[in-house]
Specification:
Layout: H1 3-44, H2 48-57, H3 60-67, H4 73-85, H5 95-121, H6 123-130, H7 136-149, H8 152-168, H9 173-192, H10 200-224, H11 237-267, H12 274-309, H13 313-350, H14 357-371, H15 374-389, H16 394-417, H17 422-443, H18 452-479, H19 487-512, H20 516-533
Helix pairs in contact: 1-9, 1-12, 1-13, 2-7, 2-12, 3-8, 4-8, 4-11, 4-12, 5-8, 6-7, 7-10, 8-10, 9-10, 11-16, 12-13, 12-14, 12-15, 13-14, 13-15, 13-18, 13-19, 14-17, 15-17, 16-17, 18-19
Length: 536
């Protein structure tokens, strides 16, 4: 084995260890998030109050989740630039690095503060534009929620930079634990004020939770040696590099949010609770998919950035194919699970209190059509990180911008013409995701010639295994029609049983097809077992 190959093997092992740690943390974070959603559903159901909150929250969430979240533009720009400026992760940052950090932080705070003030002042006309077919009461309520949550804008930008610094220093735990804080705050405040009829407590809890997220990150950032000394060194070449990467990425994420506003516009003409149902469907979708994407792409992104700096194109191709291949491998059983067990899962988790069977069907319908986007979703997010590693965020922005027209057209066809309802909204999202993935995958050739042949050959094998697994699991689901017991217990047993059958059959079929990711994962698993129990 050559030195380069040995280095790549060590990096792969390190990547898998980091991915495993992040996956465990993310699972815990998502579980707490599910409990939060259950509490919200129990108190508010799928109603005009919950619709008003979720309509309003989509705007500050742009800063907290899309722009400032893990994988967002501020996190990505920080990793892409700072990972190349910090030679040793054991040393405190140099004065030059700290000056760059201070400039970045100062400009970010000012920008988001101005943005927050504008949304506070114009909250009512903004919500009136978005909820075009909503009642005056809903618009007024959503505007009040938005005003309460405007401080989240400033916090989102700060946390995004914090996440980037922490990931650069391979501190993966804090960024992925951070969302738990907001969930816990929301759970506690709603539980203590469960008679809230306007959703104001929910909006206040969201803002307080975001503040707590910032407080959680700060001590570690200070310990690493980063401190903010307000300055305007805007001529710093590295700050210009950040801006060149950041602005198109921000615009790209903002365009992604425009897609959501388009959905909100069309959803407002549907039945009450439709937007809440789509929101819950997205949260369920993000539970397994978010774990996969965050677990692998967070530690993989700094590796991409360093490989680009070293001009190691073979390394980029190798890690991209391995990363995306493993994501594909995990995504297919998730699709099977959503299609066959989605209704049972939604019913078991949410159907109590103000959340009824009608709401369960609304969420499930949205989720079914959204599930088909998982494969293009993981590919799109992965290839976007390669663009960012080459300091190119313009191409993802142009592609995202061009898909806005497609989103409007598809929503019009599915909702206004074909009357598909909630499912039409999420189906159009799936088609747009596929469009973005294909275009980004094609134009990366301007940076690097990727080796897709091996990747999609393996995907073909996985799809064959997935199709057979689907019909085996469908037969297993059919047998549960003859079992009579309480609905909750039946759903729980069905999900666990069919889930286990799905995983075992899928892995077995992939091993028969000699699918390399399955073989590699099995080899590593058996190696761990032999080491743990001193076998052989």
């Amino acid at each position: 084995m050559t030195t380069t190959e040995s280095g790549r093997e060590n990096k792969t092992t390190s990547l898998l260890k980091a991915a495993w740690l992040i996956a465990v943390i993310t699972v815990f974070s998502k579980l707490i998030g599910f409990i939060r959603d259950i509490v919200i559903a129990d108190v508010y159901g799928a109603s005009s109050v919950s619709d008003a909150y979720f309509y309003a929250y989509q705007i500050p969430s742009l800063a907290l989740l899309l722009l400032g979240g893990v994988g967002g533009p501020f996190h990505s720009a920080t990793v892409a630039v700072f990972s190349k400026l910090i030679p040793s992760l054991k040393d405190k940052p140099s004065e030059e690095v700290n000056r760059l950090y201070s400039t970045f932080m100062t400009t970010t705070i000012i920008f988001f503060a101005i943005l927050g003030v504008l949304f506070f002042i114009f909250s009512h006309p903004i919500m009136n534009l978005i909820i075009s077919d909503g009642t005056p009461q809903m618009v007024n309520l959503a505007a009040m929620h938005l005003r309460i949550m405007t401080p989240i804008f400033i916090i989102g930008g700060i946390c995004g930079i914090y996440y980037g610094i922490l990931v650069t220093y391979k501190e993966f735990m804090l960024p992925n634990l951070s969302p738990i804080v907001m969930s816990i705050v929301i759970i506690l405040m709603i539980t203590l004020c469960h008679n809230d009829k306007t959703g104001m407590v929910l909006a206040v809890a969201t803002t307080v939770g975001a503040i707590c997220q910032w407080i959680l990150q700060y001590p570690k950032i200070k310990q690493l040696g980063f401190k903010v000394i307000p300055n305007w060194d805007l001529q710093n070449p590295e700050f210009k590099n950040i801006c060149e990467l950041l602005f198109p990425a921000v615009l790209s994420s903002t365009v992604g949010q425009v897609h959501i506003y388009v959905d909100m516009f069309f959803t407002s003409s549907l039945k009450e609770g439709a937007w809440t149902a789509i929101g819950y469907a997205n949260r369920i979708f993000q539970f397994p998919v978010g774990i996969l994407v965050v677990a692998f792409l967070v530690p993989l992104f700094p590796i991409f950035a360093r490989l680009v700096a070293d001009n190691d194109m073979d390394g980029i191709r190798t890690y991209f194919n391995k990363g995306v291949g493993i994501l594909f491998f995990g995504a297919i059983p998730i699709i099977i699970g959503i299609l066959l067990l989605g209704y049972d899962g939604v019913s078991m988790i949410f159907e109590h209190g103000a959340f009824d069977a009608k709401a369960t069907m609304m969420v499930t319908e949205a989720l079914w059509f959204l599930s088909v986007s998982i494969l293009p979703y993981v590919f799109r997010d992965s290839i976007t990180r390669v663009y960012y590693s080459f300091n190119d965020s313009k191409t993802p922005f142009v592609v995202a911008f061009s898909s806005v027209v497609l989103k409007v057209m598809l929503n019009y066809i599915f909702i206004s013409r074909l009357k598909m309802g909630i499912g039409g909204i999420t189906l159009s999202t799936s088609f747009v995701t596929l469009f973005n993935a294909v275009i980004l995958g094609y134009f990366i050739k301007n940076k690097i010639k990727m080796d897709y042949k091996g990747l999609f050959k393996n995907l073909g094998k996985m799809c064959i295994a997935g199709l057979v697994t689907f019909f085996v699991c469908l037969a297993a689901c059919y047998l549960f029609k003859y079992i009579h017991m309480s609905k909750f217990l039946l759903c729980a047993i069905k999900i666990v049983t069919v889930g286990i059958i799905c995983v075992l059959v899928y892995i077995w079929l992939n091993l028969l097809l000699k699918m390399e990711y399955a073989e590699e994962l099995m080899t590593r698993f058996l190696g761990k077992m032999k080491s743990k129990f001193n076998i052989g």
